[in-house]
């Protein structure tokens, strides 16, 4: 097992820290991290400070930001991925390496927004009392799924069956202390054991961490943060707009400005959702889903940040349409025509009918 940390001798050990892992050259992950950091800073009281550290292969991306970076080279990233090629192993290795840098560590996935002062979350971390994003399910609930069968065989070797299950947590946020090196060592060993040969589950890292924590108290933090892992496209569009308006160079004004960005994806009002449900009451299956997504995108609240991401509802609809056979697609939306699909009610916003048809026609032509 290898998870040697980058040289951190220049960093003093802190009482507590937020810890991020960001690697690769994709803009969206850098913007995710920066926006997450801004939400954390925006929650601090006047005069409060926060130690924020980032393991990254691109430390220059954070020049001028109120963070400390620990440079990762290709050798370390390869080593952290392990011999079985499981890239989420790097996360467990980053947490293990980060334990040496602070008494308390709150590891944060980049797709996380802080809804509460992070110092209050950090206070909840105690030795052998862990914080995790949220409870997802018991092992007994998922163990019969086809893609979990191999892992089930591995767990049997550890005495685990559906009858003596354990809780599985999402590890989008993880709070540990500097005494938890054995916990992370066990987690990494389990990852290596469970990814031998091949693996069907991309969340093995958080299952291994949950298993290692199974005999200790674990608190959920889901009310204090928002982990938007299932809704990334909406937030990526909003982050892109935010940084296009304000730039990525840090300024003391940025944390306050980030409050303008909604902390949820755009939903129509309850009344509008009820109206759309009524309009689609006689539709079934995928046609109902397509109709809902198209009309939801049109009916989102008037807000500058929602305006730049409402097309993501239309994208969800287009992905559903692309699953149809060619006959279904062309019956729904004939090539070269700009008529609204006769099977669906029309959007109420002026101009949206043509905007939606143009969007769908473009997506269908890209795949034809």
Task: Write a concise keyword list for the protein shown above.
about 375 residues, alpha/beta, seven-stranded mixed sheet, two-stranded antiparallel sheet, 16 helices, globular
Count of discrete domains: 2
Distance between the termini: 47 Å
The CATH topology of the largest domain is given as Spore Coat Polysaccharide Biosynthesis Protein SpsA, Chain A
Class based on secondary structure composition and strand pairing:
alpha/beta
> Total strand count, please?
9
Major sheet: size, sense and barrel closure? Answer: 7 strands, mixed
CATH class of the largest domain: Alpha Beta
In CATH, the architecture of the largest domain is: Alpha-Beta Complex
Strand order of the largest sheet: 3-2-1-4-7-6-8
Total of helices: 16
Written as H for each helix and E for each strand, in order along the chain, the element string is EHEEHHEEHEHHEHHEEHHHHHHHH
Shape: globular
Mean pLDDT: 94
**Could you name the ranges where pLDDT drops below 50 across 5 or more consecutive residues?**
none
Strand content: 5-15%
CATH superfamily of the largest domain: Spore Coat Polysaccharide Biosynthesis Protein SpsA, Chain A
């Amino acid at each position: 097992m290898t998870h040697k940390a980058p040289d951190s001798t220049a960093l003093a050990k802190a009482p507590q820290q937020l810890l991020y892992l960001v690697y690769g050259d994709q803009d969206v992950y850098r913007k995710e991290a920066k926006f997450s950091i801004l939400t954390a800073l925006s929650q601090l009281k006047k005069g409060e400070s926060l130690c924020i550290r980032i393991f990254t292969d691109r430390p220059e991306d954070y020049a001028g930001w109120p963070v400390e970076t620990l440079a990762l080279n290709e050798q370390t990233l390869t080593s952290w991925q392990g011999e079985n090629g499981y890239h989420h192993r790097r996360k467990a290795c980053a947490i293990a390496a980060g334990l040496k840098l602070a008494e308390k560590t709150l590891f944060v996935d980049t797709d996380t927004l802080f809804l509460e002062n992070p110092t209050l979350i950090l206070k909840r971390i105690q030795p052998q009392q862990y914080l995790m994003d949220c409870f997802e399910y018991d092992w007994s609930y998922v163990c019969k799924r086809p893609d979990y069968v191999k892992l089930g065989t591995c767990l049997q070797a550890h005495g685990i069956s559906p009858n003596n299950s354990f809780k599985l947590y999402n590890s989008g946020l993880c709070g540990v202390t500097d005494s938890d090196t054995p916990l992370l060592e066990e987690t990494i060993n389990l990852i290596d054991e469970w990814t031998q040969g091949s693996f069907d589950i991309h969340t093995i890292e958080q299952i291994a961490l949950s298993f290692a924590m199974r005999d200790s108290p674990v608190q959920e933090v889901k009310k204090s943060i928002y982990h938007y892992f299932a809704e990334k496209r909406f937030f990526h569009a909003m982050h892109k707009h935010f940084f296009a308006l304000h730039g990525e160079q840090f300024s003391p004004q940025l944390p306050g400005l980030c409050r303008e960005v909604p902390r949820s994806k755009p939903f129509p009002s309850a009344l509008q959702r009820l109206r759309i449900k009524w309009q689609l009451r006689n539709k079934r299956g995928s046609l109902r889903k397509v109709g809902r997504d198209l009309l939801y995108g049109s009916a989102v609240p008037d807000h500058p940040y929602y305006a730049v991401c409402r097309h993501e509802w239309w994208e969800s609809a287009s992905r559903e349409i692309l699953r149809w056979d060619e006959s279904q697609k062309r019956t729904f939306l004939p090539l070269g025509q700009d008529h609204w699909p006769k099977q669906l009610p029309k959007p109420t916003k002026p101009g949206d009918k043509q905007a939606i048809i143009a969007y769908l026609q473009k997506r269908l032509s890209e795949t034809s």
